[in-house]
Amino acid sequence: IALISFSQASAETIIKDARTAPVRTSTVNSAAADSIKIEAAGSIKLTSGTAVTMDSNHAVINEGAITITDANDAVGILALPNTNGAITNSGTITIDETYAPTDTDKDGDIDGSFAQGSGRYGIRVGTGHIGDIRNGGTIAVEGNNSYGIALDGPLNGNLTNSGKVDIIGDNSTAVRAGNVSGNVVLEGTIGARGANSIGADLSGDIGGALRVQGSIVSTGYRTATPPGDVSKLDADDLLQGGNALRVSGNVAGGIILDAPPKNLDDKDDDEDKDGVKDAYEGTAFVVSYGSAAAVQIGSANQATTIGPV
């Protein structure tokens, strides 16, 4: 007699339609908690609150569109503290506002603040989370004191951006992380525009390596290209941004501003063995337009040790 056993496959709830109500991993499936996958045709569009909440140990995947407009304290994807599950975004997360600065004094130059709202997040991860955080899509956030990707506490996993993260607003950060047990990989593009706003702020210890192989740009200026007549620039055009990249903790695996490897073997499409095809790899470009350092390493209140690459 042959005995055959079947193990239950990991399930997930698929969202392939347009929704206007938030979802939670704990209650998305009427039968049981479940992972959530928003397919390319799916979307969640809210007027306030949090679009997707991970409040159980289940993954969240967004291949579609998450949108919240004109709401303070809005979050695209939120992982509550001490949850377990990967968050993967290959679609779009847009937390924005309809406000746009105008030329109020009629001098041909835009006036006013970059943003009016505050407390907005593309992806927010609570402390003690277990699971990789990966963005290969687009995260766009408009707001003061806001974040594209924010890790509120230690992450047991890897943090990877191979897509685009843009933040517009004062005192904001495109990518913020504390302690990360694994690697931090910053590919793609990261941009921060606003007074004191930072591109990538890594304030904790990194157990693996920090690899930058994309664009990280910060500025407080209205535009990085000065006009022909600078006499018309107002004070709100000349705000100072923060660092493009700030590292305040230890990095066990070292820091590398990387570039694609040389082509030494036409039959090998991944010669540096980093899991990314060499043809798709970029070159590090870290720039601060203004008085802040492009790269700042170190801390005022603790010793910082950078390991060998």
Task: Outline the biggest β-sheet.
Answer: 9 strands, parallel
- Coarse shape: globular
Spans of at least 5 consecutive residues with low confidence: 1-9
Q: Terminal Cα separation, in Å?
A: 57 Å
The helix/strand series, from N terminus to C terminus, equals EEEEEEEEEEEEEEEEEEEEEEEEEEEEE
Question: Overall pLDDT, averaged?
Answer: 92
- Order of strands across the main sheet: 1-4-7-10-14-18-21-24-27
- Determine the oligomeric state from the structure: single chain
Helix content: under 10%
How much of the sequence lies in strands comes to: 35-45%
Count of alpha and pi helical runs: 0
Radius of gyration: 21 Å
Number of strands: 29
Query: Which structural class matches the secondary elements?
Result: mainly beta
Description of the molecule:
- With 309 residues, the chain is mostly beta strands.
- 0% of the residues lie in helices and 36% in strands.
- The protein has strands at residues 12-15, 18-19, 23-24, 35-38, 43-46, 50-54, 60-62, 65-69, 75-79, 87-89, 92-96, 121-125, 129-130, 133-135, 138-142, 147-151, 155-156, 159-161, 164-168, 173-177, 184-186, 189-193, 198-202, 210-212, 215-219, 245-247, 255-257, 285-289, 295-297.
Helices and strands in order:
Blueprint: E1 12-15, E2 18-19, E3 23-24, E4 35-38, E5 43-46, E6 50-54, E7 60-62, E8 65-69, E9 75-79, E10 87-89, E11 92-96, E12 121-125, E13 129-130, E14 133-135, E15 138-142, E16 147-151, E17 155-156, E18 159-161, E19 164-168, E20 173-177, E21 184-186, E22 189-193, E23 198-202, E24 210-212, E25 215-219, E26 245-247, E27 255-257, E28 285-289, E29 295-297
Parallel strand pairs: 1-4, 2-5, 3-6, 4-7, 5-8, 6-9, 7-10, 8-11, 9-12, 10-14, 11-15, 12-16, 13-17, 14-18, 15-19, 16-20, 18-21, 19-22, 20-23, 21-24, 22-25, 23-26, 24-27, 25-28, 26-29
